[in-house]
Write a structure and sequence with these properties.
By secondary structure, this protein is an alpha+beta fold. It has helices at about 60-70, 130-135, 135-140, and strands at about 5-10, 10-15, 20-25, 40-45, 45-50, 90-100, 105-115, 120-125. It has a five-stranded mixed sheet. It has a three-stranded antiparallel sheet with strand order 1-2-3, with no helix packed on it. The relative contact order is 0.14.
Length: about 150
């Protein structure tokens, strides 16, 4: 592993610091502080930030603050955030895997959020079919279900 390189192993994340020492940044105590893995996926006319629920802080206020930071809320500069300066592109999908059903098919839960114009809140009462359509790809990227290359969806 080279200096500054990250390595992931199913929920554990390490980074090599400038002195060459390996640090675990994936523990519960570091959740949301740095190194939160996300996927930026475009589906249809929408682009969304997808994140595993387990990688987010459990505290509601901390989770909301972290998600808003992804979109530039820390400095109010929307152009610096993942959604850019268009409110329609500031969407988040929070995905969680629960135990497989009795038929062995993976079961996922999904929460959609639309970041407001002022970057101060996330509306979880709406829905976006395009962002929902990206869930199978996100799940495949995380090994939660088979992807097209292995005969899955």
């Amino acid at each position: 592993m080279q200096r500054g390189e990250r390595q992931s192993a199913r929920g554990a994340y390490w980074v090599r610091d400038p002195r060459g020492a390996i640090q675990d940044i994936g523990g519960v105590e570091n959740r949301g502080r740095r190194g939160t893995p996300v996927a930026l996926i475009r589906v249809g006319t929408s682009r969304g930030v997808y994140v595993r629920r387990e990688d987010l802080p459990r505290d509601t206020a901390a989770r909301e603050a972290l998600l808003l930071r992804f979109f530039g809320a820390q400095d109010g500069e929307t152009a610096d955030g993942l959604g850019g300066d268009r409110a329609a592109l500031r969407k988040v999908g929070i995905i969680d895997r629960v135990p497989n059903g009795s038929d062995g098919i993976p079961v996922l839960t999904y929460t959609f959020g639309q970041v407001c114009e002022t970057l101060t809140a996330i509306d979880y009462g709406a829905e976006c079919g395009n962002i929902a359509a990206g869930i199978p790809l996100f799940a495949s990227l995380h090994g939660w279900c088979a992807g097209p290359e292995t005969g899955g969806a």
